[in-house]
Sequence to fold (175 residues):
Amino acid sequence: MNKKQIAILSNGNILHKDEGIALYAGKYLESNYSFHPSVDIIHGGVEGMSLLNIFMEYEEIIVLDAIGIEEAAGSMYQFPMSTFRSFSTDEDVDEMGVLGCLNLIERKGNTLPKVSLLAIIPDTIESKIGLSDSLLKPFDAYILMIIKSLEDKGFTCEAKTEKQTLESVIASFTS
Fold:
């Protein structure tokens, strides 16, 4: 089976405030940029078995997510798969999130795609839609980190003429 070249997979939960930032970033990129060659942007939400097929379809996947490590809110990191797989706990091994899917693919003897994680540290995961000020401020830098990652891989990222604001992206998830 011929695999597609690359996808951006945004994970998160908009119902838990800052945990939605990766979903907002994916939608923001989709609304405001065009990519050459094309890049599939997949809104993974709160994960599950559907992610398994995604990992089987692509040669490379850039995962966007908020991660809870002890750093300042808004801090951003780019991790290769080998690094972020080491973050897993015993609970993650069989959970059907990103790490669980990678583990299952590997256990079945299938070839893993090249995976990297572009992560940002959340400030709050309270039950509320939107982003905290701690993540509103670095949002543009997070978008630029994603674009730079794509450009480093040989993709051209062109800003569209009509831009959708972050506020309208967030609002689109509630309508």
About this structure: The chain is about 35% helix and 25% strand. The chain has a mean pLDDT of 89. The CA atoms of residues 78 and 118 lie 5 Å apart. Residues 139-152 form the longest helix (14 residues).
